[in-house]
Design goal:
With about 140 residues, this protein is of the alpha/beta class. The protein has helices at about 20-25, 65-75, 95-100, 115-120, 135-140; strands spanning about 5, 10, 20, 35, 55-60, 85-90, 105. The chain is globular.
Length: about 140
């Protein structure tokens, strides 16, 4: 079992099996967890988001940011509210930006320190730009 950070807590992976997008779409009885690679179309699950408990978005490389856009779409456009997990080549330097796009769960890459990752996530309380779940700092100051 790999360690995860979920909702600012370090925990073991308890989601069980996560279906690939191909397996999910082919299943008559849809699984409750799906893994979507960065080159796969996030719109193919938009009608099922209310039934999913985990959506894992894969970052095949540190430099591949396509899953950021998918996370933002899931939260803002499709109203997904459950666990949105970043998997793949996840480094602690990315966690704050991932949170701003809507991720609330992180499976760090091999060699990354989960305790340091949690510490980094708790280090940012304000942003200058808007995020999916909070207003920018200048709006907070004007109220």
């Amino acid at each position: 079992m790999s360690q995860l950070i979920i909702d600012l807590e370090i925990t073991a992976d308890t989601a069980g099996p996560i279906a690939t997008l191909e397996e999910f779409l082919a299943a008559d009885q849809k699984p409750t967890a799906v893994l979507i690679d960065s080159d796969e179309d996030i719109e193919s699950i938009k009608d099922f988001v209310a039934t999913l408990s985990v959506i894992a978005l894969n970052f095949p490389a540190f430099s591949d940011g396509r899953a950021y856009s998918s996370a933002n779409l899931l939260r803002r456009e499709y109203g997904y509210t459950a666990e949105l997990r970043a998997v793949g080549d996840i480094r602690i330097d990315q966690l704050e930006q991932m949170t701003r796009c809507g991720f609330n769960a992180f499976q760090l890459a091999e060699g990354q320190n989960v305790d340091q990752g949690l510490e980094r996530l708790q280090g940012f309380s304000f942003s200058y730009q808007p995020a999916f779940n909070r207003e920018p700092l200048f709006r907070a100051r004007s109220s």
